[in-house]
Amino acid sequence: MFYYLKGRAAHLAPNLAVIDCGGVGYACRTTSYTLSGLQMGQEVTLYTHLNVREDAMELYGFGTEKERNCFQLLIGVSGVGPKAALSILSATTPEGLATAIITGDEKALTVAQGIGKKIAQRILLELKDKLAKGQLPAGEERYGGTGVTVIPQNKSSEATAALAVLGYSPAEIAVALKGLDLEGLSLEEIVRQALRKMIK
């Protein structure tokens, strides 16, 4: 329904940003990472997700499309609600989450408030399984084009898969990885440097 909101940051509080768009204040639940980039009175753009329940409608806003994509991935996991997803994305970046999915790093998720070992394992299992079956948003259209992806076994393939989780196309990923020290750098650093190149 809402793709993004563009307006003035009228009120900021823990996990909440109110964006004034033409005199209407939209309350957006959000992460600490998004909040850290907002300043009162400044014009901002938040990419949104509308969560509809029987008893309420809540709007969630994120500073980047990557963060929103990760939020939508997380709430698609059985037993993971918006509150848990916000907690995870307040504790790790989108690239950190993508790396955790590829490497099976549950500790990267359990540092988030309210996220225990069992739910972290479920998140990693379900999302890695979806990646293997080409069911992540980038899967069928962007990652290989076949809808079937083999779980990667080396840093180059792992970095490619992690960037695909974030929604980048194979062509964009290939350009971003070119020239990086794929053997000497850690997976997360490869992903971070590739993202830096793509953002320029």
UniProtKB/TrEMBL annotation:
- What InterPro entries is this protein classified in? DNA_helicase_Holl-junc_RuvA_I, Hlx-hairpin-Hlx_DNA-bd_motif, NA-bd_OB-fold, RuvA, RuvA_2-like, RuvA_C, RuvA_C_sf
Example of a GO MF term: four-way junction DNA binding
- Cellular compartments annotated: Cytoplasm
One biological process term from GO is: DNA recombination
Instruction: Quote the Gene3D superfamilies the UniProt record gives.
Output: 5' to 3' exonuclease, C-terminal subdomain (1.10.150.20), DNA helicase RuvA subunit, C-terminal domain (1.10.8.10), Nucleic acid-binding proteins (2.40.50.140)
Could you confirm whether the keyword Lyase appears in this record? no
Q: Which UniProt keywords apply?
A: Cytoplasm, DNA damage, DNA recombination, DNA repair, DNA-binding
Q: What is its main location?
A: cytoplasm
Region Domain III, annotated ranges: 155-200
Q: Does the keyword Metal-binding apply?
A: no
* SUPFAM superfamilies hit by this protein: DNA helicase RuvA subunit, C-terminal domain, Nucleic acid-binding proteins, RuvA domain 2-like
UniProt xrefs under Pfam families: HHH_5, RuvA_C, RuvA_N
| Segments forming domain Helix-hairpin-helix DNA-binding motif class | 72-91, 107-126
Q: Name one GO cellular component term.
A: Holliday junction helicase complex
Self-association state and partner proteins as the record states: Homotetramer. Forms an RuvA(8)-RuvB(12)-Holliday junction (HJ) complex. HJ DNA is sandwiched between 2 RuvA tetramers; dsDNA enters through RuvA and exits via RuvB. An RuvB hexamer assembles on each DNA strand where it exits the tetramer. Each RuvB hexamer is contacted by two RuvA subunits (via domain III) on 2 adjacent RuvB subunits; this complex drives branch migration. In the full resolvosome a probable DNA-RuvA(4)-RuvB(12)-RuvC(2) complex forms which resolves the HJ.
How are the domains described in the entry?
Has three domains with a flexible linker between the domains II and III and assumes an 'L' shape. Domain III is highly mobile and contacts RuvB.
Family, according to the entry, reads as follows: Belongs to the RuvA family.
Q: What does this protein do?
A: The RuvA-RuvB-RuvC complex processes Holliday junction (HJ) DNA during genetic recombination and DNA repair, while the RuvA-RuvB complex plays an important role in the rescue of blocked DNA replication forks via replication fork reversal (RFR). RuvA specifically binds to HJ cruciform DNA, conferring on it an open structure. The RuvB hexamer acts as an ATP-dependent pump, pulling dsDNA into and through the RuvAB complex. HJ branch migration allows RuvC to scan DNA until it finds its consensus sequence, where it cleaves and resolves the cruciform DNA.
**UniProt-recorded name of the protein:** Holliday junction branch migration complex subunit RuvA
Organism, as annotated? Evtepia gabavorous
